[in-house]
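pipeline/complex-builder :: batch 7 item 3
reading input block
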Amino acid sequence: QKEVEQNSGPLSVPEGAIASLNCTYSDRGSQSFFWYRQYSGKSPELIMSIYSNGDKEDGRFTAQLNKASQYVSLLIRDSQPSDSATYLCASIRYSGAGSYQLTFGKGTKLSVIP
Amino acid sequence: ETGVTQTPRHLVMGMTNKKSLKCEQHLGHNAMYWYKQSAKKPLELMFVYNFKEQTENNSVPSRFSPECPNSSHLFLHLHTLQPEDSALYLCASSQVGGTRDGYTFGSGTRLTVV
Protein backbone atom coordinates (compact mmCIF):
# COMPACT_ATOMS: atom_id res chain seq x y z
CA GLN A 1 0.00 0.00 0.00
CA LYS A 2 1.33 3.41 -0.99
CA GLU A 3 1.30 5.47 2.19
CA VAL A 4 2.31 8.83 3.51
CA GLU A 5 2.90 8.88 7.26
CA GLN A 6 2.81 11.86 9.59
CA ASN A 7 2.81 12.31 13.35
CA SER A 8 -0.72 13.48 14.09
CA GLY A 9 0.41 15.70 16.97
CA PRO A 10 -0.71 18.00 18.32
CA LEU A 11 2.57 19.88 18.06
CA SER A 12 2.73 22.93 20.28
CA VAL A 13 5.39 25.61 19.88
CA PRO A 14 5.70 29.09 21.42
CA GLU A 15 5.26 32.13 19.22
CA GLY A 16 8.52 33.03 17.46
CA ALA A 17 9.96 29.50 17.63
CA ILE A 18 10.69 27.11 14.77
CA ALA A 19 8.04 24.48 14.09
CA SER A 20 9.33 21.25 12.53
CA LEU A 21 6.88 18.95 10.75
CA ASN A 22 7.93 15.55 9.44
CA CYS A 23 6.62 13.08 6.89
CA THR A 24 7.75 9.74 5.47
CA TYR A 25 6.53 8.00 2.35
CA SER A 26 6.64 4.38 1.25
CA ASP A 27 6.51 4.59 -2.56
CA ARG A 28 9.93 5.20 -4.09
CA GLY A 29 8.15 6.04 -7.34
CA SER A 30 6.79 9.24 -5.80
CA GLN A 31 7.89 12.18 -7.91
CA SER A 32 6.87 15.35 -6.12
CA PHE A 33 5.91 16.32 -2.62
CA PHE A 34 3.63 18.98 -1.26
CA TRP A 35 2.72 20.60 2.01
CA TYR A 36 -0.83 21.83 2.42
CA ARG A 37 -2.22 23.90 5.30
CA GLN A 38 -5.80 23.30 6.39
CA TYR A 39 -7.55 25.53 8.87
CA SER A 40 -10.44 24.00 10.79
CA GLY A 41 -13.55 23.79 8.62
CA LYS A 42 -11.66 24.97 5.52
CA SER A 43 -10.17 23.28 2.48
CA PRO A 44 -6.46 22.47 2.03
CA GLU A 45 -4.26 25.28 0.73
CA LEU A 46 -0.93 24.58 -0.98
CA ILE A 47 2.00 26.25 0.75
CA MET A 48 5.10 24.42 -0.54
CA SER A 49 6.14 21.96 -3.22
CA ILE A 50 9.47 20.15 -3.60
CA TYR A 51 10.74 17.57 -6.08
CA SER A 52 14.53 17.63 -5.81
CA ASN A 53 16.69 16.48 -2.93
CA GLY A 54 17.71 19.29 -0.60
CA ASP A 55 16.06 22.40 0.77
CA LYS A 56 13.60 24.83 -0.77
CA GLU A 57 12.85 28.10 0.99
CA ASP A 58 9.88 30.42 0.57
CA GLY A 59 9.61 33.20 3.12
CA ARG A 60 9.29 31.68 6.60
CA PHE A 61 8.80 28.16 5.16
CA THR A 62 11.54 25.67 4.25
CA ALA A 63 10.76 22.27 2.75
CA GLN A 64 13.39 19.54 2.88
CA LEU A 65 13.46 16.34 0.82
CA ASN A 66 15.66 13.28 1.25
CA LYS A 67 14.69 10.66 -1.33
CA ALA A 68 17.20 8.09 -0.06
CA SER A 69 15.53 8.18 3.37
CA GLN A 70 12.05 8.75 1.89
CA TYR A 71 11.65 11.70 4.20
CA VAL A 72 10.07 15.14 3.74
CA SER A 73 9.94 17.92 6.29
CA LEU A 74 8.59 21.44 6.66
CA LEU A 75 10.18 24.07 8.88
CA ILE A 76 8.24 27.18 9.85
CA ARG A 77 10.45 29.94 11.23
CA ASP A 78 9.20 32.71 13.53
CA SER A 79 5.95 30.80 14.10
CA GLN A 80 2.84 32.95 14.50
CA PRO A 81 -0.52 32.11 16.08
CA SER A 82 -2.01 32.40 12.58
CA ASP A 83 0.13 29.37 11.60
CA SER A 84 -2.02 27.21 13.90
CA ALA A 85 -3.62 24.67 11.55
CA THR A 86 -3.32 21.10 10.36
CA TYR A 87 -0.45 20.55 7.92
CA LEU A 88 -0.92 17.84 5.32
CA CYS A 89 1.98 16.13 3.59
CA ALA A 90 1.24 14.70 0.15
CA SER A 91 3.12 12.83 -2.56
CA ILE A 92 2.30 12.40 -6.21
CA ARG A 93 3.06 9.33 -8.27
CA TYR A 94 2.21 7.95 -11.67
CA SER A 95 -0.56 5.37 -11.30
CA GLY A 96 -0.73 4.17 -14.91
CA ALA A 97 -2.83 4.89 -18.01
CA GLY A 98 -1.69 8.51 -18.08
CA SER A 99 -3.03 9.15 -14.58
CA TYR A 100 -1.35 10.49 -11.46
CA GLN A 101 -2.47 10.30 -7.84
CA LEU A 102 -1.89 12.76 -5.03
CA THR A 103 -1.84 10.78 -1.76
CA PHE A 104 -2.13 12.51 1.61
CA GLY A 105 -0.99 11.78 5.14
CA LYS A 106 -3.39 12.21 8.05
CA GLY A 107 -1.91 15.60 8.88
CA THR A 108 -0.12 17.14 11.86
CA LYS A 109 -2.04 19.63 13.99
CA LEU A 110 0.15 22.60 14.92
CA SER A 111 -0.67 25.00 17.73
CA VAL A 112 1.40 28.17 18.13
CA ILE A 113 1.06 29.51 21.66
CA PRO A 114 1.16 33.33 22.05
CA GLU B 1 -15.49 33.66 -10.13
CA THR B 2 -11.96 32.45 -9.58
CA GLY B 3 -10.32 29.20 -8.52
CA VAL B 4 -12.42 26.16 -7.78
CA THR B 5 -16.00 26.66 -6.61
CA GLN B 6 -18.20 23.99 -5.05
CA THR B 7 -21.91 24.01 -4.34
CA PRO B 8 -23.66 23.52 -2.06
CA ARG B 9 -21.44 24.29 0.94
CA HIS B 10 -23.61 22.22 3.26
CA LEU B 11 -26.02 19.40 2.49
CA VAL B 12 -28.22 17.30 4.75
CA MET B 13 -29.93 14.38 3.06
CA GLY B 14 -31.89 11.32 4.02
CA MET B 15 -30.76 7.85 3.06
CA THR B 16 -33.42 7.58 0.35
CA ASN B 17 -32.72 10.98 -1.24
CA LYS B 18 -30.91 11.73 -4.49
CA LYS B 19 -28.72 14.83 -4.61
CA SER B 20 -25.79 16.16 -6.63
CA LEU B 21 -22.64 18.04 -5.74
CA LYS B 22 -21.27 20.51 -8.27
CA CYS B 23 -17.73 21.71 -8.91
CA GLU B 24 -16.47 24.29 -11.39
CA GLN B 25 -12.88 25.38 -12.00
CA HIS B 26 -11.82 28.66 -13.60
CA LEU B 27 -8.09 27.91 -13.78
CA GLY B 28 -7.83 26.41 -17.26
CA HIS B 29 -6.88 23.04 -15.78
CA ASN B 30 -7.55 19.79 -17.62
CA ALA B 31 -7.81 17.33 -14.72
CA MET B 32 -10.40 17.23 -11.94
CA TYR B 33 -10.74 15.11 -8.81
CA TRP B 34 -13.14 14.17 -6.04
CA TYR B 35 -11.76 13.56 -2.54
CA LYS B 36 -13.51 12.50 0.67
CA GLN B 37 -12.30 13.77 4.05
CA SER B 38 -13.58 11.98 7.15
CA ALA B 39 -12.58 12.65 10.75
CA LYS B 40 -9.26 11.05 11.76
CA LYS B 41 -8.62 9.66 8.25
CA PRO B 42 -6.42 10.95 5.44
CA LEU B 43 -7.97 12.59 2.43
CA GLU B 44 -9.20 9.75 0.22
CA LEU B 45 -9.06 10.06 -3.55
CA MET B 46 -12.34 8.91 -5.08
CA PHE B 47 -12.27 9.73 -8.79
CA VAL B 48 -9.86 11.22 -11.34
CA TYR B 49 -10.84 12.80 -14.65
CA ASN B 50 -8.24 13.77 -17.26
CA PHE B 51 -9.55 15.76 -20.24
CA LYS B 52 -13.08 14.82 -19.00
CA GLU B 53 -12.33 11.10 -19.22
CA GLN B 54 -12.40 9.06 -16.01
CA THR B 55 -9.02 7.47 -15.38
CA GLU B 56 -9.33 6.43 -11.73
CA ASN B 57 -12.08 4.97 -9.59
CA ASN B 58 -10.63 4.01 -6.24
CA SER B 59 -13.12 1.27 -5.37
CA VAL B 60 -15.85 3.77 -4.64
CA PRO B 61 -19.35 2.32 -3.98
CA SER B 62 -21.81 2.72 -6.85
CA ARG B 63 -24.05 4.95 -4.73
CA PHE B 64 -21.51 7.66 -5.71
CA SER B 65 -21.70 8.44 -9.43
CA PRO B 66 -19.39 11.06 -10.96
CA GLU B 67 -20.02 13.01 -14.14
CA CYS B 68 -17.61 15.26 -16.03
CA PRO B 69 -19.30 16.95 -19.02
CA ASN B 70 -16.23 19.08 -19.82
CA SER B 71 -12.84 19.96 -18.37
CA SER B 72 -14.30 22.77 -16.23
CA HIS B 73 -17.24 21.03 -14.58
CA LEU B 74 -17.49 18.00 -12.33
CA PHE B 75 -20.49 16.53 -10.56
CA LEU B 76 -20.95 13.87 -7.91
CA HIS B 77 -24.39 12.30 -7.95
CA LEU B 78 -25.47 10.75 -4.66
CA HIS B 79 -28.22 8.20 -4.01
CA THR B 80 -29.18 5.82 -1.19
CA LEU B 81 -26.25 6.97 0.95
CA GLN B 82 -25.40 5.61 4.38
CA PRO B 83 -24.71 7.60 7.57
CA GLU B 84 -21.01 6.64 7.31
CA ASP B 85 -20.87 8.60 4.04
CA SER B 86 -21.17 11.80 6.07
CA ALA B 87 -17.94 13.71 5.40
CA LEU B 88 -16.40 16.72 3.71
CA TYR B 89 -16.31 16.19 -0.05
CA LEU B 90 -13.60 18.15 -1.80
CA CYS B 91 -13.19 18.85 -5.49
CA ALA B 92 -9.76 19.69 -6.87
CA SER B 93 -8.23 20.52 -10.23
CA SER B 94 -4.78 20.59 -11.82
CA GLN B 95 -2.98 20.32 -15.10
CA VAL B 96 -2.85 16.61 -15.95
CA GLY B 97 -0.38 15.05 -13.51
CA GLY B 98 -0.06 18.03 -11.22
CA THR B 99 3.52 17.01 -10.56
CA ARG B 100 4.84 20.57 -10.41
CA ASP B 101 1.98 22.68 -9.09
CA GLY B 102 -0.07 20.18 -7.09
CA TYR B 103 -3.84 20.39 -6.94
CA THR B 104 -6.08 23.38 -6.17
CA PHE B 105 -8.99 22.56 -3.90
CA GLY B 106 -12.47 23.99 -3.69
CA SER B 107 -14.07 24.92 -0.38
CA GLY B 108 -15.82 21.58 -0.10
CA THR B 109 -19.34 20.36 0.59
CA ARG B 110 -20.06 19.27 4.16
CA LEU B 111 -22.45 16.31 3.72
CA THR B 112 -24.55 14.89 6.52
CA VAL B 113 -26.58 11.74 5.88
CA VAL B 114 -29.44 11.22 8.33
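note: The first strand of chain A starts at residue 4 and ends at 6.
queue -> next item
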